[in-house]
């Protein structure tokens, strides 16, 4: 498609040259004796070039729109950009094909320390970078199978009731942990999964740096009506694109909001 735009621009330039030469051939010689010959030719050429410039700009705008469309569609088609929530569930048979045990530090008793391959590598880099800044991060939970999530959900329903459970715990199939792309993170100084984690240096470091490794804070305070879950300062999601992760974090968006933005821009460009 980019080659098509280049060919169109080249064709327009050639057409302009041919037309200009034709004008000189047909009109320039016949008017050679007239005093206003040069002025007439120059004016005609200026009109021609003005039209040509407009045509080139028009095609350049089309090329720019196409590049933006290509970029946005590439974001949505990224394998790490999958939206998982109460309305977009994974099949119970879904298991990531490239799970591996994370080399990032996890709680000693944590059993869910597997992550999708790229997520595991990014988490290790993030934990190492935090350590260099004096922050000791600890993984609490990584990949959870559909059956494990089902057992967890049902146990919490029995213990806490449906309303409270649904506010924090995903139904089987609706958990990002099943994708292997999510990790719950705490630190040496604070090892309880509650909102108190937001008062730690570890949380502040994560919110300022997680995007550098392709992660976003998934469930924000004040966005419960969009995500369907209460605020979770410990739950981070890998999306793979550091530029997009930075944009999401800087603007205080949740994943659903960003995806809707991208879809709306795509629809506008296709009109």
TrEMBL record:
Lineage: superkingdom: Bacteria
Name of this protein: M15 family metallopeptidase
CDD domains found in the cross-reference section: LD-carboxypeptidase
InterPro entries per record: DD-CPase-like, VanY-like_core_dom, VanY/YodJ_core_dom, Zn_M74/Hedgehog-like
Annotated transmembrane regions: 7-25
Keywords, sorted A to Z: Membrane, Transmembrane, Transmembrane helix
Source species of the chain: Clostridium saudiense
Domain D-alanyl-D-alanine carboxypeptidase-like core: 114-240
PANTHER family per the UniProt record, alphabetical: D-ALANYL-D-ALANINE CARBOXYPEPTIDASE, PEPTIDOGLYCAN L-ALANYL-D-GLUTAMATE ENDOPEPTIDASE CWLK
Signal peptide: none
